[in-house]
Amino acid sequence: MRIPMIAGNWKMNTTINEAIQLVSEIRWKLGAIDNVDKVICPPFISLAAVSELIKGSSIKLGAQNLYFEDNGAYTGEISPLMLADLCELVIIGHSERRQYFNETGEIIDKKIQAALRFGLKPILCIGENSDENEAGKTEEVITNQLMASSTRVYYLSGLVIAYEPVWAIGTGRAATGKQANETIGFIRHTISQKEGKRIAQDLRILYGGSVTAANAAEFINQPEIDGALVGGASLKPAEFLSIVKQTAEIRGRLSG
Ligand code: PEP
């Protein structure tokens, strides 16, 4: 049984004080929920403060990005070496980075390698945009993204995939549970063909795109979906807690 994961991507939101306040509001309740991996990904600038606050709890910390070199003349960048003491996970290849910062498959692949060198677990984001979706190219786009950054070593390292259709991110227009389940089933099948059934069965694949407390159950109830990458709703303490709680309840029921 794959352990479900709910990861909160705060994006470029919260000052350090706001981050401290947000985490202080949820840490006890969130930390007390079992059988779900709970991950929060604040901006770089708040990682140290949040790391102190969640020390000793079951909440895991993730970064939203990294650069692929360890150190050097790369003004403004943050390396995996700097993150390794603070974080367990790192989001890589988010569609906003692909779109606004021109991250290509090659760059994303280098970032995954860099994360793994320092024992950081990547949450690799893939997904089609609305034109590609409307043109019926979802499977082609996803296959290309997977092939650009996928080797057996990655999967064995505990890499997590987040399927995030770009048209569903931050739009309030989530995919349906059925749509997301089918595409995630396709992702698992593609990886199974390339790397073998065992690796595909053990791989956690999350859905992301306008997940809220109101629609989370629709996704978590699907057999192929192992949790969610949550953007906007992760900034609302009650909403995020509710998504994690529902996941624990549904998964407890499904496995019991
Ligand atoms: C995201 O940023 O990965 C995301 C899914 O955002 P939202 O939940 O706001 O759509």
What can be said about this structure in brief?
With 256 residues, the protein is α/β, with parallel strands linked by helices. The chain is built from twelve helices and eight strands. Helices cover 46% and strands 14% of the residues.
Describe it for me?
- The structure is a single chain.
- The mean pLDDT is 96.
- Helices cover 46% and strands 14% of the residues.
- It has a domain at 5-10 and 62-230: Aldolase class I (TIM Barrel, Alpha-Beta Barrel), CATH 3.20.20.
- Helix 1 (16-31) runs parallel beside helix 12 (237-255).
- The protein is an alpha/beta fold and 256 residues long.
- The longest helix is centred in the C-terminal third of the chain and has 19 residues, at 177-195.
- Strand 1, helix 1 and strand 2 (37-41) form a beta-alpha-beta unit.
- Residues 9, 11, 164, 169-170, 208-211, 229-233 line the site of phosphoenolpyruvate (PEP).
Record the SSE blueprint:
Elements: E1 5-9, H1 16-31, E2 37-41, H2 47-54, E3 59-63, H3 80-83, E4 89-92, H4 95-100, H5 105-117, E5 121-126, H6 130-134, H7 138-148, H8 152-156, E6 160-163, H9 177-195, H10 197-202, E7 205-208, H11 216-220, E8 227-230, H12 237-255
Parallel strand pairs: 1-2, 1-8, 2-3, 3-4, 4-5, 5-6, 6-7, 7-8
The protein binds phosphoenolpyruvate (PEP).
Radius of gyration: 17 Å
Average pLDDT score: 96
- Biggest sheet: strands, sense, closure? 8 strands, parallel, barrel
Distance between the termini: 11 Å
Strand arrangement, major sheet? 1-2-3-4-5-6-7-8
The CATH superfamily label of the domain at 5-10 and 62-230 reads Aldolase class I
Q: Which secondary-structure class do the elements indicate?
A: alpha/beta
Task: Give the class-level CATH name of the domain at 5-10 and 62-230.
Answer: Alpha Beta
